[in-house]
Amino acid sequence: MPFPFHLLAPPDPAALPLPHPARPADGVTLLRGAVYAVPDGGRPLTTDLWLPEDATGPVPVVVFVHGGAWHTGLRDDPGPRFRAWRPGPFARLARAGFAVVCPDYRLSGEAPHPAQRDDLAAVLAWLRTRAGDLGFDPSRTVLWGESAGGHLAALTALTQPPGTVAGCVTWYAPTDLPGLAEDRPEGTYDAHDPASFEALLLGGAPAGRPDTARDASPVTHVGTGAPPFLLLHGTDDSLVPPRQSVRLAEALRAAGHHPDLCLVGGGDHLWVGLSDADAADCFARTLAFARRCAGTGGAAGSGT
């Protein structure tokens, strides 16, 4: 009898049991490391799920996309300014009534664009499939990402069918990869460099892959069906010029939208240079925006 090779196929992530719950903070349940996809020839992709306890109905969702120049990063890391928060940002969002989803995605050393966008689309599909098990309302999903994660959040929000995403928040995100050569100070960026973080994402130097660079740029995909956007960017960002967020805001306005663009005075990348109060205000703005998109109301400072 020939061997039944179909038995070697990975199980359907939609049918796998969910992880055992932990309780990292009062009022919060954490399911760490749920498998949401198994790319062919790649590692299983997992996500953490921060859930509000005692929810009375399906809850809105915030999907957090970590940064790290597409090349590194941890799914549960919102950046150095927030690592010492107790409770942390995700627990605060859960206490405010959101489920928070923190997925892995394939890094640039594993696969080039569009793998990262495809992975985030897969986690959104998995959330829709598991919504009944988890008590989620996937129609009220807000994407939030910082740095490269903000780029991927925006790219995903703009390439999903209209209505899939209720809103998108980006923190100091690149949005127009071909435009980086113009936006960065002279001598600080080489579009022909095959070793740049952008080149590693694209599978080659941006100058040699103009079509791929455009396809990987959120500004390329702005249309009439774009969701609401909150764009936060420091005026003193030395890694990703604030002009990158302005470019996306301009593209959204040209398509008839009204994005909320906030250029944070004195902020460098990762909110370096901001006071603790100003960094906390960036989080408060994010929570307030997510509440508006999800229709939950409440005060912007709640969830602490």
Automatic annotation (TrEMBL):
Q: Which residue numbers delimit the BD-FAE-like domain?
A: 48-252
Q: Which UniProt keywords apply?
A: Hydrolase
Coiled-coil stretches noted in the UniProt entry, renumbered to this chain = none
Its domain of life reads: Bacteria
Q: Which residues form the signal peptide?
A: none
Q: Do you know which Pfam families this protein is assigned to?
A: BD-FAE
Query: Which molecular function term from Gene Ontology is one that the record holds?
Result: hydrolase activity
Which PANTHER family does the UniProt entry name for this protein? Answer: AB HYDROLASE SUPERFAMILY PROTEIN C4A8.06C (PTHR48081), ALPHA_BETA HYDROLASE (PTHR48081:SF13)
Please state what the protein is called: BD-FAE-like domain-containing protein
